[in-house]
Design a protein that fits this description.
This protein is an alpha/beta fold. Helices cover about 40% and strands about 15% of the residues. It has 10 helices and 13 strands. The strands form 4 sheets. It has a 6-stranded parallel beta sheet, with helices on both faces. Strand 1, helix 1 and strand 2 form a beta-alpha-beta unit. Helix 2 packs parallel to helix 4, helix 6 crosses helix 8 and helix 6 crosses helix 10. The longest helix is centred in the first third of the chain and has 22 residues. The chain is globular, with a radius of gyration of 20 Å. The N terminus is likely disordered.
Length: about 325
């Protein structure tokens, strides 16, 4: 029998509430797990892919029936950078649609009290006015290189809104800016720009090579948020936000990729030169989120970019060796 959940607005979560973090082994999911533990939540639920295949609808239904989570955070997704998105469009669209459909619909049928769905800033039109306001969704064409992932995430937002309207579910969606930090992906074929730069500069430092060749012109502007700050924002919103309108989570400032490269170079301690290859894609000219809706609720990030890059580099060294 399908349960109907009627939301009653923001509420404090009990510390013994059963909280399922979908994707708890990834960068975002592991940060959510750390933050929930830090705040004293003791009944966290996580499943690796070998334990629960989120592409299997029947398996997800059984999981919900057996574990009975009260809160769900959807941080599970197939993710990657420009090359990965452009090379595997069918996988990025199909797998992300399947994962979020199973988790969101399953939460409804299981009577979950509240669900938080994590989107991506790539949902916004390529040439949307800056900073990116939530109202800009669906007002223009997407960036072609990651449109498949973006369309899946837009569908997830709309699914949360639809389940609120039709079934009264307290399902909210949040849109983080570019993230980095512990457990990031440093594979140069599939990673995002900041971890890719960390790896490139580290390997060049170790090998003593110069220059490091970076993609594009270096002119696009990007905003970055340390992943533990995102986790703090998500837990904050679980307790203080209940609205159909999705909400941006950003740091409040941006910089050029060229400036970012210089900061990563300094953090890694690379002494060589940087060369830019304009034959490679730049991506969207600028992605700077308007986080005023979130900031008005009283939340602010705690980790600035320079400190965050240092923390990320230490994580890279711990995982891949300090050689």
């Amino acid at each position: 029998m399908t349960a109907r959940v009627v939301y009653a607005g923001p509420m404090k979560m009990a510390h013994d509430a059963r909280i399922y973090v979908a994707g708890h082994l990834g960068m975002v999911g592991s940060a959510l797990w750390r933050e929930l533990q830090r705040q004293g939540y003791s009944r966290l639920i996580g499943r690796g892919i070998d334990e629960l295949d989120l592409l299997d609808a029947a398996a997800v239904r059984r999981f919900y029936a057996e574990e009975k989570p009260e809160y769900v955070l959807v941080a599970a997704a197939k993710v990657g950078g420009i090359v990965a998105n452009d090379s595997f469009p069918a996988q990025f669209l199909y797998e992300n649609l399947q994962i979020q459909n199973h988790l969101i619909h399953g939460a409804y049928t299981a009577g979950v009290r509240k669900l938080l769905f994590l989107g991506s800033s790539c949902i916004y039109p390529k040439h949307a006015p800056q900073p990116l306001r939530e109202e800009s969704l669906l007002t223009g064409p997407l960036e072609p290189t990651n449109q498949w992932y973006a369309i899946a995430k837009i569908a997830g937002i709309k699914m949360c809104q639809a389940y609120r309207r039709q079934y009264g579910c307290d399902f909210i969606a949040v849109m983080p800016t570019n993230l980095y930090g512990p457990n990031d992906n440093y594979d140069l074929r599939t990673s995002h720009v900041l971890p890719a730069l960390i790896r490139k500069f580290h390997e060049a430092k170790v090998a003593g090579t110069s220059p490091v060749v970076c993609w594009g012109t270096g002119n696009p502007r990007r905003e970055f948020l340390y992943v533990d700050d995102l986790a703090r924002a998500c837990v904050f919103l679980l307790e203080h936000y209940s609205d159909e309108q999705f909400i941006n989570i950003g740091s409040g400032s941006d910089l050029t990729i060229r400036e970012l490269a210089e900061r990563v170079k300094q953090a890694v301690g690379y002494a060589g030169d940087i060369a830019w290859d304009p034959s490679l894609p730049d991506g969207t000219p600028r992605k700077w989120m308007d986080s005023s809706r979130l900031f008005a609720l009283g939340w602010r990030p705690q980790v600035d970019l320079d400190a965050g890059i240092q923390l990320a580099y230490q994580d890279f060294l711990k995982r891949f060796g300090a050689a």
